[in-house]
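User: Okay, second chain of the day. Same drill as before: sequence in, structure tokens out.
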Amino acid sequence: MWLASAHHLLRWRNGRMAAVLPPENAGSAVVTLMASDGNHGVLAMHEGHGLFRHDGTQWHGIGIGALRALHATALLRARDGAVWIGYPANALTRWDGTARRDFSAHEGLNVGTVTALADSAAGLLVAGESGLALLHEGRFHPLRASRPELLHGITGIVETARGELWLNGVRGVVRIERDALRRALANRDEPLSLRLFDFDDGLPGVAQQAPISSSAELARDGRIWFATNQGLAVIDPHNLHSNPIAPPVTVRALAANRRQYGAIAGMRLPKGTSDLRIDYTALSLSMPERVQLRYRLSGVDRHWQDAGNRRQAFYTNLGPGDYRFQVIAANDSGVWNEQGATLGFSIEPRFTQTWWFSALCVLVGAGLLFALYLLRLRQIAEGVHVRLEERHQERERIARELHDTLLQGIQGLVLRFQAIANRLPQEDPTRTAMEQALDRADDVIAEGRDRVSDLRASMTTTPDLAEAFGRLGVELAESHPAGFQVLVEGRLPVIDPVVRDEIYWIGHEVLTNAFRHAKASSIEVEISAAKESLSFRFRDDGRGIGQNVAPGTTEKSGHWGLRGIRERAQGIGAELGLWSREAVGTEVELVVPMKAIGMKPRSMGWFALMASAWRR
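Assistant: Same drill. Structure tokens below.
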């Protein structure tokens, strides 16, 4: 037996006590730590001078100059012969005889000041003032407990032959079964299953803090000795009292909104209930203060809540719905009643907490959004209308300028040339040529007036293209008689005013050419609405476009009508097709996608109709 006093190291052997002189270079340094060297000697840390080993005859220095000699707090010789030294602030050093390796928080060590070390079958255990950690594959892993304070301030660790761990700490002696440690290593989130031995079990005091050596030791007879602040204690791990009966559990009452209810299954709590208290208990007559309880509320708690030996559970801010409260308990020996007790109840919803109120809010919100959408459509339509008015006003201004300047000027020139021609004799060839030129000038003036009339024409009087084309055909037939009809297939959607205007002018150009130049007996307009597009077909049985056209253009030299309608079609994203045969007739097809006219496909037409009704 080795003993250390304030200034001496003593050895008890063969019934005699003898002082052991300190190492020569240590002088009278105080021995702060002692541990077995694995044989019959001892390891001793001399404060300020380093670590030494006494083999029974003399001292030998260990890692002198390489190991910290100050403020060491724990010492251990492992089974592989390596020496471990603990220090404050999560510092730990390993010395294998030739090299030193340091561990710290970078390797996961987070126990504060190291207070105890043990070389267990699972690995190196390091205890500190704030917890317990296990070294595994080069990193430290903290060991959790349902009561973390039981693993604080441990100064002694012992492993028995059966693999149990016994820890001497400030709360008492804690036992960890081998299977519990294995489960904790396999699942880091599972807390250790512990059993506490304290004053109620006969333990005097609590673990001695800052001892020179481990405060727990395993004797040859299998018993474990503990050093406490009130003396020594011993326990035989092979002869422990155990309570095999799981405690019965019951839910006693439920309180909500300052009103007490009995524990009646299926009870319905009134509207507005949000805070409640549930009273429960577990019966154990041997040591009721050692009973441990856990509870959970389905729909609120994802995991079991450790309540210790508290017999009440509190919940706040609960919403309406069905709930199921469960509680289980363990007796003083750690035997759990896994079935426990349950209580089902429900909370009635307020008017504002019902599903149909939420649905009503969604409908109201959707209605507001729809109203805002319609309002926005109305604003857009008004903006388009304003732009169209500006456009028509500009066209009328251009028409006035053309009529008041260009046409009037040409008319004045014609009159002057006519006066000059009248002075020439009737048989004069010059007069004949001038009259022919004047006849051509009259045609130009007539065509110019027609163009001015076109500029003054407006689509704002009606949004219906079929009606607009019908009026145009009637007007053109008065000057150029021909059979005319407008055919409509399907229901026409509401068209964006700008796009509608472009479509009208394309049809205006085609119908004007058909009446004036085709010499047709029958002209028709066919309008058909499909799911994805709107089609316009203009047909006549006239003489066709003719041969006097530029190759690949189907347009006569000096005329720009077809080019104009092509440019208008491209501008609104439509497709334009033209077929013509001499003495057979001409057909022009304009296909406008629904997305180009500002509308969705036919399946969404009801939405546009509602918007149109709103605008009206």
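The chain is about 25% helix and 35% strand.

User: Thanks, on to the next one.
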